[in-house]
Write a structure and sequence with these properties.
Enolase-like, domain 1, 379 residues, 32% helix, binds magnesium ion, TIM Barrel, 2 domains
């Protein structure tokens, strides 16, 4: 059975074999499948490299692909989909995610609704591996939502019409024609996120402003290392219809970021500084808001708690994603009605999406009317 047929077979919920199935024929030696038993959680996974539509220029590197791992959890004929996406700075990779997932024994759980207990178990197996844990969490939310026949935004009591516009991200290109093409591609969006922290921050902003007047947000990706220069940039950007600045300085420069926050006319948002819920309280001392991403938070279970905690601390909440398929992005979209800003464009940046899910309608996050995380396998 090739990989596509394997996934489609699973999507149809047909019976699994009673013994582990090797996926080596599909070229995925590290993929594995636990023996299927009725009433038990059965985990399977396979590596899936995401191909980028444009090379991505960040403050500290450039990349054209992102490693990923696709996950399924089967339970009584239903399949929940999940995904791990591993941008290099997170410190996870295909090998570490597969090693973590291989070490799990989810078949010990007979009730997928015991998310608290399962998350305790996931953390007990290894302290980090956040993207790997997120892949399990997303698949469990998909599964349990499907069992209830409801999407998660509804289970959480959220109003989908309150989902915000999403930003679309562009980065610098030395070729003016390429730069213009990137800017023109942002036309359907009501907010555009510009990656900064390189030597061309004003240049890219001015190039953008020549072709578009929509609000921008800025992600410096830790690229500004001088607090005075960072403050100058915040002031300069505030005059150019910028909404906020994300991670202006290296996460280690906490005191300098607190200094900047006191003086900046724009909100300062934590991204790389912050991973999980235990980081939120301290972030409030130097940042105005937090960027929650499922691959950092270990999935939806903790992301939902983080959004509530940040709100209770009076912080702004942004919802981001990695470069990932519509699986993880649509899962994140379930939370979008409770955030100030969404940056859910990761699926739009790749050329080989295998899921249908989140749609951007008139610039706005639109959550599919499907149970679970709201996705359908299409490839
Ligand atoms: Mg960021």
């Amino acid at each position: 059975m090739n990989r596509r047929n394997f996934l489609k077979t699973s999507a149809l919920g047909l019976a699994f074999a009673a013994a582990p199935i090797s996926l080596s024929a599909a070229g995925t030696d590290t993929a594995t499948r636990k023996a299927a038993r009725s009433g038990r959680l059965n985990l399977s996974f396979e590596p899936y490299e995401l191909k980028l539509r444009h090379a991505f220029n960040l403050a500290r590197n450039q990349r054209t692909t992102t490693p990923g791992v696709q996950v399924q959890i089967e339970y009584d004929g239903l399949v929940g989909y999940g995904e791990a996406s591993m941008p290099p700075y997170l410190g996870e990779n295909v090998e570490s995610v597969c090693k973590y997932l291989n070490s799990l024994d989810l078949a010990q759980f007979s009730d997928p609704f015991r998310l608290a207990e399962i998350h305790e178990y996931l953390d007990s197996v290894a302290p980090n591996d956040r993207a790997a844990k997120a892949s399990v969490d997303i698949a469990l939310h998909d599964l349990t939502g499907k069992i209830m026949g409801q999407p998660w935004y509804k289970i959480w009591g959220l109003s989908p019409e309150k989902a915000p516009n999403t930003s679309f991200t562009i980065s610098y290109d030395a070729d003016p024609k390429e730069m213009a093409a990137k800017i023109d591609e942002t036309a359907p969006f009501k907010v555009v996120k510009i990656k900064m922290g390189l030597d061309h921050d004003k240049e890219i902003t001015e190039a953008f402003r020549k072709r578009s007047d929509v609000p921008i947000c800025v992600d410096a990706n830790q690229g500004w290392t001088d607090k005075h220069k960072a403050l100058d940039m915040c002031k300069w950007l505030a005059d150019r219809n910028c909404l906020f600045v994300e991670q202006p300085m290296p996460k280690e420069m906490f005191e300098e970021t607190a200094w900047l926050r006191e003086r900046s006319p724009l909100p300062i948002i934590a991204d790389e500084y912050l991973q999980r819920i235990s980081d939120v309280r301290r972030a409030a001392d130097a940042y105005d808001g937090i960027n929650i991403k499922l691959m950092k938070s270990t999935g939806l279970y903790e992301a939902h708690k983080m959004a509530n905690l940040a709100r209770a601390l009076g912080m702004k909440v942004m919802l981001g994603c990695m470069t990932e398929t519509s699986c993880a992005v649509t899962a994140a979209a379930q939370l979008s009605p409770m955030v100030d800003w969404a940056d859910l464009d990761g699926n739009l940046l790749i050329a080989n999406d295998r899921f249908d899910g989140i749609k951007i309608v008139d610039g706005k996050v639109t959550i599919p009317d499907r149970p679970g995380i709201g996705v359908e396998l299409i490839g």
